[in-house]
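Agenda item 2: magnesium ion complex prediction
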Amino acid sequence: MSALLEISGYRLAFDGFEGRAHVLDGIDLTVAEGETVGIVGETGCGKSVLARSVARLVDMPPGCVPGGGIRFAGQDVFAMDQRGLARLRGHGVAMIFQDPMTYLNPVFSIGSQMVDVIRAHDRAEGKPKRARAAARDAAAELLDAVRLPDPGRLLDRYPHELSGGMRQRVLIAMALTGTPRLLVADEPTTALDVTIQAQVLRLIAELVAARRLTLMLISHDLGVIGALCRRVVVMYAGTIVEDGAADVLFAAPRHPYTRGLLAAVPDLARPAHRARPIPGHIPNLLQPPPGCRFHPRCELAVGRCVAEKPPLRQVDGRLVACHRAEEAAA
Ligand SMILES: Nc1ncnc2c1ncn2[C@@H]1O[C@H](COP(=O)(O)OP(=O)(O)OP(=O)(O)O)[C@@H](O)[C@H]1O
Ligand SMILES: [Mg+2]
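Presented output:
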């Protein structure tokens, strides 16, 4: 398998009112074509910023300081010009987000928005732009592919006339327009109720398999990740702390933070077995803790954890960034 996505030493800081926030601190992540990778971590740990960086969708205001690099299919995404970026977003990376309503324009019908997207993709690909009628047929086909009933009629409806689950399907259909290789789904089902969530997750799984997509799924729900991803990447305060096969990580986590995350999941089968929250809070990224960013909350922390940032290293068949990973296992 060849690497589709290579993120190396990627850093991102935002200069703001109160100073510089070190939001991502040296991310190393290589994803091979066809992999399904889940990214988990507490709120604010940098999952969305990382995901958006892959398609260069993160706002890069003057005060934003990136470092390291991101390559997609061998190409440096930070060196791309506008045309290269249009191609990357059309045919390389497609994204779906948590709140579908934000990404649909309330004043245009579903059909007119899809037709515009389809024709924009034609332009980005350098193909002759399809006529509106042909693009509309293609839109109906895509709606059918995401199992929306009666696509012909749906095209004439407006976003507010659709349920949340239907809107998310429309956005998934739009994401498939340019035949992407990598699908980045950032909390795609968080806004949906559990039954609709299950349907949308199944749809994503089916599309990933049928179209041989590489999947990067961001969620703070370990159950969602476990259902769709074979590999799990755990983030904490802008760093990757553990990265490995989902069954290995879930069965025997080695980073104290991953252990904490798993212990914090309520067990419905054993209600008496209370979920244990991780004590403390995520750190202020204006002044992140030195060494391991997790050390203030870690029961195993020793002097070295304060002094030295632990590198990601191989332990028991996965990567883990912890000086005390061996002790954590004991
Ligand atoms: N454009 C921006 N300017 C300044 N800071 C930003 C910007 N975008 C994100 N941040 C900061 O980056 C950090 C990471 O944000 P991010 O949205 O990636 O978190 P997350 O892990 O996706 O959280 P959640 O689970 O809540 O979605 C946060 O501290 C956030 O305030
Ligand atoms: Mg997010």
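Discussion summary: The pocket of adenosine-5'-triphosphate (ligand 1) is lined by residues 14, 16, 21, 23, 41, 43-49, 59, 220, 285 (CB under 6 Å).
Owner for follow-up: CH.
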